[in-house]
Amino acid sequence: MKRLLYYSAEWRNKDIDFLRSLPGINKDIEVGYDSFTVEENSDTHLRIVDFYSKKKLVLGNSKPKNFISTPATAIFTKEELSTAKNYLLLFTGESKGSPQPAESYLENTYDFKCKVVGCWEGRKQKALFRIPNIKWKKGQVNFTLLEHDVMFFKKDFYQEVLSPLGLAFKEVIDHKTGKISSDIIQLDIPEAKSKLLIEDTAYDIEEPCGVCGVKQFTMRTLDFLPPFEEKFEFYICRTQEQFGGGMRRIIITKQFSDLLVKHKIIRYDNDNLVPVRNC
User: Fold this and answer.
1) For residue 135, which of 78, 97, 86 has the smallest C-alpha distance?
2) Which of 9, 61, 126, 212 is most buried (CB neighbours < 10 A)?
């Protein structure tokens, strides 16, 4: 695994001259506000740290305005992806827009303990999703609607492939007709039976909500996802913990990921999966 760091600032001419001299830096970086990523602990990263170190600042080499350095993402090797037993599922299907009605679906579909925008702590589905008109591509069997913790499938695919695994479903409403959809279902993803060992990890970087005081975890991929505190049997589940916007994260087993790959829903790569740390 390698970690990437994100740098941004209002770069000056002398900053640009220095940065363009470094390997791996996009040569299109310009004076003024701009940003780039660099591999953590690489020679380029260490030279940037040295250039803007306190020792150099004493000599007058001040940092540019709005200088920010923060973790960007983690990239996993093919071996790390292939040898994991469980995964965080990043890709839950091609987005087909917003649940309906778009301007009020949150309050219509969910209950919240905290209604602060961006927190939504305690978000719990209370009503069926209302689905916009869906145009299927050839061979497509699932999609999502701007939500990271819900998945929608063709009903016949669910019955043939997912129902035999003991997975349940929820009906959805065709927003245009107001009737139960005849060919689309929402997969009813059960809640995990254990918490994650996520406290004090790379994912534990968010500040608590200023109103409810509840801390959520970052949605960014910054490391292997930590494992569950206790082992339990599952194919797919939603974390007990909440991440950005009150959403849970979907965890799947190797067996379930193989099934999704077989049906060309996902691939074994960094855009689709984050390996859970084996324990």
Assistant:
1) 97
2) 9
